[in-house]
Known about the structure:
- By secondary structure, this protein is mostly beta strands.
- The chain folds into three domains: 32-123; 130-212; 217-422, Sandwich (Jelly Rolls), CATH 2.60.120.
- It has helices at residues 4-30, 415-422; strands at 35-39, 51-56, 60-65, 74-75, 78-83, 90-92, 96-104, 109-117, 121-123, 130-134, 146-151, 155-160, 169-170, 173-178, 185-187, 191-195, 205-206, 210-212, 217-221, 237-239, 242-244, 254-258, 263-268, 277-284, 291-296, 307-312, 322-327, 331-336, 347-354, 357-362, 365-370, 383-386, 400-409.
Amino acid sequence: MKNYPLYYLLITLSIILNSCTEGFKEEYSKLVIALTEVTAITTPTTDTTPDYTFSSTESGAITYGGSCSSSTTIAISGNNTITLNSLSDGTYADCTIKVSKTISTEKSEKKLSGSLTITSFTVDISTTLIAEVTAVTSPDNDTTPNYTFSSTTTGTITYGGSCTSVTTSANVDNNTITFSTLSSGNYSNCTIKVTDSAGNESNTLTITTFTVLPDGLIAYYPFDGDANAKIGTLNGTVSGANLTAGRNNVINTAYSFDGVDDYIEFGTGMLSGDGEFSILIWINTSSTESGRIISQRSPGGGGYLGAYYVDLLSASGKEGKIKFTTYTSGWDWRVTSSSALNDGNWKHLAFVQQDNGGKMYLNGSLDQTDNSNGKVDLVSTAKTYLGKEGRNNSSDWYYSGKVDDLKIYNRALSASEIQTLFNTSD
């Protein structure tokens, strides 16, 4: 008897096996390596050996095509960063990468591969690069300040914004230029660009913002680490007052006074005569006690003659207000702030003598005027004090609070100049 069931079983198994094999071959033939650009090369670039990053779905051997090559010849599955071999000036639009590998079985081999064209890029080592070396000193009263920048090639300088100079040629390495005469104010839009002989333009260099102070500045105390004059000759002698954070919240850029015995003493004759002057100062106090913030006044019984002083008031109805007083042989111009200023925030005060009296500015705006009593005639023998009365008597009206950025001019500043100084971050 024939064994038909066995034949049927063998035939069925053969059909199943052939079907699986054909299915495997079909799926096997679909395997490919996918390459994707991750980080293109910056263009234009001055880097002659730029980096390039691509991703691959499989590991394998790298083959380069076109004008690019690299010492990296193996790719991993995932991101791959390669460094191209040295390139010359020019545009590279034909560079390709191919990743390939061979998968083997007992009866066959399959070569898998994927390719990618690198996004076109340009290498230009002739590109001029310029960079700031020495910024303009700021703030300063120099109306023709110097500025130093570096350049990688020679070329013609182009100026932008509010700054110009008679210097129009740049050399390789550092270049120091002198700006043409500038008015007082803040300069934040000045730029420089260099163009080489082939017409290649450099990057545009934005000059660090700087401030030109109004002319007539005879004494300037930024209190950056000490009480010395940045402009002027009268350095301060500190007695008890401590350095603290200033109006820009930078440590050691202001002085704090305890209201008990702290003060700073300057020499004699900072201001003298009955001419114009401007006194500008930042204060910060939360004190409810009277105190003398700044004064120029002779010691002893004749201390009122030819004097000025700035007081924090505590009298009823005037608590926390600031009063500026002048006296020659009688009371001259006097002004009191329209509001209390002892709220623990920084306030900018400006006192200007002109015409037949003077004005008080608060935070850059006119606050009070007095032209009814005439100008003060300041004596040249009086010292200037911060933080106390200075008459060497039993009541020196010590001030409790902070001061920052004292400026004294020998002329009357305009409203716009005071506004500019209020907005100056020095």
